[in-house]
Design a protein that fits this description.
457 residues; alpha/beta; Rossmann fold; Helicase, Ruva Protein, domain 3; 4 domains; five-stranded parallel β-sheet; 19 helices; 47% helix
């Protein structure tokens, strides 16, 4: 649909001039000879933009601006006048005018002003729709959630997206780091350009440089043709470096140079290529610890960590679990299913109380498994044993009138479960970890936190 612009001016010659000028630019133009006529037209039609003279008999342009912003705040307004004053300009901007231009004006000047105003208004409208979408459908760019922590995350992504700064997304495995990176891309000015993702830990060390920067024919044995790397494939768009903590030090050095100089060479090539790519990095590792250990370059860490986003684990947003269950039910049942599968109270209670060390990915697997066993009902019988038998730790809780210290209580509870698991497995840490649904490494880390790790298997 064409963009609709309303021209409001008491001078016929100015209305005709602007109408011809803007129609040639492809706009759908309407005209009004007074503010009252303009308001009447706006009762029956929606306009993307209004160009209004300031000094008109009857209702002035400033008064018209106030009425427009009251009834249609999303409409961009550009004020025109032959008798501009500083006070008028200030008043117009306070009331929400995009800009203020004096007559006579250059054709190119007003065309550019209109273009800029419409672009800004379009971005505002998109953000409003995205927020409305997140509010009404409990989703945002593929991420599901209505908890306070997820609302904060959605707002953070929208603020970060419009900048060009590098972003570091941290979080446990399965928390949706790639979805967050895609959301940043979708909400950014680069959204029409490619989004390219690479898992740095999934590529053999000998091939990472070629994968990122490409190679020239004959650079190594299997290089039978020239090949563009991921930086070239993502040109103008966004490149997600997932699990960046897995990059070897040599590649970290080369990546740092690319981020600093905005240029690179293909492997085996002498030609320097410029690059315009926004870098979003992600990791489930503690990169600060890696910096202290010397396995991750400090200067690269600060280069990629201009803005940091932390993805919350599922155990910190359990109120989103029912929404996620419904989403995965629809996903695995197919679009032809009128209603998602029913979740029994017992199954929902078990899912809400499970700690989900694998986060959303683990929940997704639970739902898929349940629907394979029974396409209509998710019950305790169809859930994995570890989930369905997980005890409810929050069933009997109370807060004293005088208040309490939650952290020591939780630490004591965690310590008891660690020791209980060791007791049941005869001190076998790997089995004890499995019993609590965590890896051997994670189990040892938690033991060390309480000074219980002897270093033995």
């Amino acid at each position: 649909m064409k963009i609709k612009i309303l021209i409001v001016d008491d001078e016929l010659s100015m209305r005709e001039f602007l109408s011809i000028l803007l129609e040639r630019e492809g706009y759908d133009v309407a005209v009004a000879g007074s503010a009252h006529e303009a308001l009447s037209m706006m009762e029956s039609s929606l306009f993307d933009m209004v160009l209004s003279d300031v000094n008109m008999p009857g209702l002035s342009g400033i008064e018209l601006l106030a009425r427009i912003k009251e009834k249609s705040p999303e409409t961009a307004v550009l004020m025109l006048t032959a008798f501009s004053t500083a006070d008028q300009a200030v008043e117009a901007m306070k009331l929400g005018a995009y800009d203020y231009i004096g007559k006579p004006f250059k054709n190119e000047e007003i065309k550019q002003l209109i273009k800029n105003a419409l672009e800004k208004q379009g971005l505002k409208r998109e953000n409003i729709l995205l927020k409305k979408d997140a509010s009404e459908r409990d989703s945002f760019c593929g991420m599901i959630g209505k908890s306070h922590i997820m609302r904060q995350l959605f707002d953070m992504i929208q603020k970060v997206a419009v900048s060009q700064s590098s972003v570091l997304i941290l979080g446990e495995s399965g928390t949706g780091k790639e979805l967050a990176a895609k959301a940043i891309h979708i909400c950014s000015p680069r959204k029409t350009k490619p989004f390219v993702a690479v898992n740095c830990g999934a590529i053999p060390e000998s091939l990472i440089e070629s994968e990122l920067f490409g190679h020239k024919k004959g650079a190594f044995t299997s290089a039978v043709n020239d090949r563009a790397g991921l930086f070239e494939q993502a040109e103008g768009g966004t490149l997600l470096l997932d699990e960046i903590g897995e990059l070897p030090l040599l590649l970290q050095t080369k990546l740092l140079r690319v981020l600093q100089e905005r240029e690179f060479k293909r492997v085996g090539d002498v030609v320097t290529r410029k690059t315009d790519v926004r870098i979003v990095s992600a990791s489930n590792r503690d990169l600060e610890s890696q910096v202290r250990e010397g396995s991750f370059r400090e200067d690269l860490y600060y280069r990629i960590n201009v803005v940091q986003i932390v993805m919350p684990p599922l155990r910190e947003r359990i109120e989103d679990i029912p929404l996620l269950i419904e989403f995965f039910c629809r996903k695995f049942q197919g679009t032809g299913q009128a209603f998602p599968a029913t979740t029994t109270p017992g199954a929902l209670k078990a899912l809400m109380n499970h700690p989900f060390p694998g986060n959303i990915r683990e929940l997704e697997n639970c739902i898929e498994r349940s629907l394979i066993l029974d396409s209509a009902i998710i019950s305790e019988l169809s859930l994995p044993l570890l989930v369905s038998k997980y005890p409810c730790l929050t069933a009997d809780c109370d807060i004293p009138e005088s208040g309490m210290q939650l952290e020591p209580l939780l630490e004591n509870l965690e310590k008891k479960y660690l020791l209980k698991a060791l007791e049941r497995t005869g001190g076998a840490k790997k089995k004890a970890g499995e019993l609590l649904g965590m890896s051997f490494r994670s189990f040892r880390y938690r033991l060390a936190k309480f000074g219980l790790d002897t270093g033995e298997e």
